[in-house]
Design a protein that fits this description.
This protein has three helices and six strands.
Length: 113
């Protein structure tokens, strides 16, 4: 029972705070959509072996083609949650909190804008 409660508590990432996030810059090389989880998964050229995802991004960003045209093959600054939350526990998948391209916020989960 405790295992199930722990797993469920990890099923939804916590609301991010800027102070709990780490930033990484790189050229966006891949953008994929998960049919199962509805996440948008982004790969960076120098992503350090990590992938980055927008939780339920397919639902949050209905016109994903617009996002693709803004970030694909462009240098982006990604802020990702660095608070230890990881549903799959593999340590290489990071929850995106914000994406900035050319000093413009193109996606954010922060409330302080």
């Amino acid at each position: 029972m405790l295992f199930i409660a722990d797993w469920l508590s990890r099923a939804v990432p916590p609301r991010p705070a800027r102070s709990k996030c780490t930033k990484i810059s790189g050229t966006v090389t891949t953008i994929e959509r998960s049919a199962d989880t509805h996440d948008i998964i982004i790969g960076l050229e120098n992503g350090g072996g990590n992938t980055y995802y927008i939780n339920r991004g397919v639902e949050l960003i209905p016109d994903g083609n617009t996002l693709d045209s803004i970030i694909q093959n462009r240098r982006a600054m990604i802020s990702y949650y660095d608070g230890g939350w990881n549903l799959f526990g593999n340590g290489t998948t990071r929850h995106i909190c914000e994406i900035v391209v050319n000093n413009k916020v193109v996606y954010t989960e922060f409330d302080d804008l």
